[in-house]
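Tutorial handout. Part one gives the primary structure; part two gives the three-dimensional structure as tokens.
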Amino acid sequence: MASGALPPGSLLPPMRELAAELGVNPNTVAAAYRTLRERGVIETDGRRGSRVRPRPSTTPRDARRMVVPAGVRDIAEGNPDVALLPSLDGALAAAALRYAQAPTLYGADPVAPDLARLARADFDADAVPAGPVAVTSGALDAIERVLVAHLRPGDAVAVEDPGWGGSLDLVPALGLRVLPVAVDDDGPRADAVARALAAGARALVVTSRAQNPTGAAVSAERAGELRELLARHPGVLLIEDDHGHGIVDLPLHPLSGVTGHWALIRSTAKAYGPDLRLAVLTGDAVTLDRVRGRQRLGPGWVSRLLQHAVVELWTSNAVDRAAVARAYGERRNALVEALRERGVGAHGRSGLNVWVPVADETVVVTRLLAAGWAVAAGAIFRVEAGPGVRLTVSQLGVSEVPGLADAVAAAVRTGVAGGRND
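Part two.
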């Protein structure tokens, strides 16, 4: 594989056949295949056999990002606006004071009771089904722990396409198979989810709001369609990633509770700061018990200092959620409208990003770079979806929108793809 003799997509010989050819025990070949799968070099599709992956899962999609030259405006990163993040000084000082009064030692509950109550109350307010609460080191950590709690190598996971590169990397890294699911402005398309489930998907990962990179948000109507569909597949593991909680003003329409095993995750990264590395999740009792049990055998718990800091931020209303959502919304909507006025189709219903379908990513990225704008190529976010580019609006001033829209329109003048997943 490293030499190129077995290019990406190559079908590997059946294990018994290869064992006979090499004159070794079939168990030896099985162990070798297992090691390759665990390292993300090959993927196994049941009776259809094993194939060489397009690239090792240990090579993250982020590695494809360009180095932004000096003087170029960087709207390629998906970070929140630092000016809209709260200061952590007071929250961390309050957490340190609590620690001084009652240090966290081995054997304590891994979830701070105050944080559990706050998170559960927020889940209840959004009609998320009852369930215990766990805390992980960010949303991707939670997704990994929930997948591992139920799936085994070779199982298929339905993932949004285009979608978050972290999820698209994580699934094959766990030895699982990605089944891409097309997305529109209202979330995963029901017909695409139905095809993935018919193809044997054991799990479905859905971004509730502020989908990365398209800005999609699951609408009430789409939620109804997906709940009806999932009700016919109660054995499927459902994972909802609501990382946009706290920065969007669209309501949550949860799918959770329809299948036997489910989890809904909320990260603090976008509202309070990525370096807090903290997410809360709820789910069915079996899933949360497995997640918390396995966590105890590894890191044990997420620092109570960080948990108490989040409690302080949450209870002190350090973030005006409505104002933050409005600020991001104004920038995003202004860019989408400006692009449409110039004949460029764009998508950005919620969150920090705008997705622009294009005919040729390389051409558009290169032209925009020459015009002084660095954007993210869509290859980082897609499997089968058509090409596009992602523009992050969090650092964008509304006064900059017309100039950016002009540059994008000029860059895509050679032709825009007909649609994101048409």
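Part three, for discussion. The CA atoms of residues 161 and 384 lie 7 Å apart. The longest strand covers residues 177-184.
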